## 1
Amino acid sequence: MRSRSFLAALVCAAVGLSHAAPTAEPDPKFAVSVQIAGSTLTNKGLVGFGRIPSNFRESTGDTFGGAGSAIYIKRGSFKKTSNGTFTGTLIMQPDRGFNVITTIDYRTRQFVVDFSLQPYYGDADLSFADAQETLSLKYRSTLLYTERDGKKPTGLEPLGVRAKDGRAGIQPEADPAMPIASASDNRLSIDAEGLAINPDGTWWTSDEAGPYIYKFNSGGFLLQTIQPPQAFLPLNNGSLNFTEAVDPQTGRAGNKGFEGLTISPTGDKLFALLQSATVQDGGSDKSTSRFTRMVGYTIPPANEELNIEPTLFGEWVVPLPVNSKQNTLAQSEFHYLTDTTFFVLSRDANGGGGSPSTSSYKQADLFDISGATNIRGTKFDNPKNPVSPDGVLDPSITPATYVPFVNFLDPVQLARFGLHNGNPTGSQLIDSKFESLALAPVNDPKFPNDYFLFTASDNDFISTQGFFDGVPFNGGEDIDTQILVFRVTLPNVAPGSIEQAISI
Ligand SMILES: *[C@@H]1O[C@H](CO)[C@@H](O)[C@H](O)[C@H]1NC(C)=O
Ligand SMILES: *[C@@H]1O[C@H](CO)[C@@H](O)[C@H](O)[C@H]1NC(C)=O
Ligand SMILES: *[C@@H]1O[C@H](CO)[C@@H](O)[C@H](O)[C@H]1NC(C)=O
């Protein structure tokens, strides 16, 4: 239990959130500061919580789920109203659909969800009902993804390979060999994980299977595919096999592709990060999989008509944290702060929807590559040359600097919003799989470097009242989509440079 006066508890319970005297600023006692790349960054605590119930159905009639796999605050949507409430629009991109008990043939898509954030800075624990008033969410619409020729991408296991597109002159970059559902089902198989929206409304989606980065136009049509170096590709005896069910001989491990995708505010630099090490770098075992790889591409000025090929300008090794058993805490998302410093979401798989329900690590940490070795174009792009054979880093490589930062599991912060870590299960248990990050400026003249950090969970579509394509499914329990909002100070980021098109 948290210590606070009995009287305060009584008053809070009696009047509820809406009548409590609003505290305009975070309580300084919640602040936790860290240093990275010569700057001090501060976590000022949890300020908002929202949820979308597990049985909610979107406009197609399907269960709304998986939505926290990737989020992006729509450019130009974030606004501060005169009464101190913030409003905006989240674009949320689910992954491959329900596949916990049965596997559904889920078409890749994204959701538009409006939000209203009324930050809570008080010390007292809110009731769970009042906590949800701090971030209210309203689903608006669904956009389904499509290939150029009209084919509908699917989340089915990619058992087949579509040969490299040999067409010349149709566009500067024809497709590389693509993951498809099977030899007889030529639909592109996408297990979407990352989302980065360009200033012109086109966007990039990263996936697990390729691991590839796909560019879509604002209508959801596939425009272009980025294939990373050989070292990343799932190869068996020199041939591509995109299945996620088993590890390839070399390349990204099964179901451990490009979980992380992020873009500079101007859209000129795009970065992708593997969930954990490639197989040759130790990725087949949790005890040796911490040295993961990041790629960086320069993107020519966005132009829907001319898909000029992005240029790989860097590749770096990021050392993920490990737990007390030395097992890797894999990453599920990262987010651009500067050309060299990034947020990264590393965690275990425990909590709501996972087992056990007590999580020991769920954090938005930081890493910096200013002193790290750029291995682009070196022997390490050949899968024969691991950067960390059996999990031991090659001494010629300096990895990124990694610093723990925002702890989602802080019991005092969770309790302020009616949440907890560990049993009992239910809506107030923090979800296991937080998988996304977004930033928006607080626009407080007293704290010009303060930002809201949003993170949402992937509930794996788990609902006892699941619905897909008109057919019910039962996921065995009810796991809501949860969204947490923290307030952070990021002084090495010039105000407005993050999601700069976000208006205030
Ligand atoms: C603040 O204003 C917005 C719209 O301007 C409104 O939707 C919201 O309910 C208001 N919030 C409070 C706490 O008055
Ligand atoms: C890839 O491997 C899976 C599982 O081992 C197998 O079922 C599938 O046929 C393979 N696909 C190709 C294109 O070789
Ligand atoms: C690789 O080739 C060897 C030799 O032909 C074969 O025995 C083995 O099954 C192949 N492995 C895979 C994963 O295809």
Note: The chain has one domain: 4-503.
## 2
Amino acid sequence: MTDTTYGFDTLQIHAGARPDPATGARNTPIYQSTAYVFRDADHAAKLFNLEEVGYIYSRLTNPTVAVLQERIATLEGGVGAVCCSSGHAAQIMALFPIMQPGRNVVVSTRLYGGTVTQFSQTIKRFGWSAKFVDFDDPKAVAAAIDDDTRAVFCEAVANPGGHITDLDAISAVSDAAGIPLIVDNTTATPYLCRPIEHGATLVVHSTTKYLTGNGSVTGGCVVDSGKFDWKANDKFPSLSQPEPAYHGTVFADTFGPMAFTFHGIAIGLRDLGMTMNPQAAHYTLMGTETLSLRMDRHVANAEKIAQWLEADDRVDYVTYAGLKSSPYNHLVAKICPKGASALFTFAVKGGYEACVKLVDSLEIFSHVANLGDTRSLIIHSASTTHRQLTAEQQEAAGAGPNVVRVSIGLEDVNDLIADLDQALSKASA
Ligand SMILES: *Cc1c(COP(=O)(O)O)cnc(C)c1O
């Protein structure tokens, strides 16, 4: 079922799924199979030639994973999606078809700490590089783009601070330069924000977080809007010219708006092997079915807790964009009208020492490196997720030593506030 005229609540349960043709099983089975029998030699040849779509080998495609791909693509308003083993894998899978040695990507300073490290260090080994820019300033983004820039990358609602990116302003800049905008929509989810409607070319996810929603499996996804014209200039030869890694196929000619998705499967997954397994797809499919219900509660709890923290004397400031005091508050209505998600930071009076005491004193909140769980989570970013960053990078990312990051869960909000209250008392004693 892919009829996008249905409402979000219907699509999050049904998109991509149909009763199992062999057994009638109503829930999508976990197709725990590595390979698929070809009807005959001609069928096999057609599949390998990409003349017919079907299943060959689960490094490339798997029926359970395919349902999740169609579901996330539908929820994001894209034409196709490729799932992979983690959010970090999704970022490499998004860049792989459009980058080459010597090319660069212009990225926001406000990103998940692991992404800052991936972009500032690891991608250099592929001959790629990243330029970090303050995305609150679209002119600075435009100024950073040069002849070798092949993409612009940001998070819709940024981890850890919950800052909102003005995607319309940024996509105007990437459009003018003739390059794609890649938006990490992990923190907002397609229920709160639909980056493609604001001009994104590709949307990446760590499905590990809210899409699965209960901290059980890692996974990632790249969604293609199908709207980018890869042939408009000569910057994207893997898509617009004969691709030597697939016996000279011109993906943009053969697959039209599905070029990026087919490239991701036929070459990205085939050669990089960052495949999502069907068990993970199953857990994430179950998560997507309740996404809107969970996000509404995550947002309601986060709003109450952010307001309570902001009014508390033991707290210096709270970064939640849903607060009237936030410099990003005016972007909520435009970018994420159903709420600013449930991830934000707050600064504790007493600095590093008080943060460590706070984290150790909480009873309901868990001290973990994750977000988007049913459970409320807290982490001291400067000593963990953002530890590899310089002091300057930590400040730019909103993860200074006096700051803790919370991911507000689905528990009773009064219990969460009471827990923060007792732990703040111990931290400031
Ligand atoms: C967690 C996270 C990632 C990385 O995802 P993994 O599934 O852990 O590889 C990327 N971006 C954001 C915003 C994240 O929160």
Note: The radius of gyration is 22 Å.
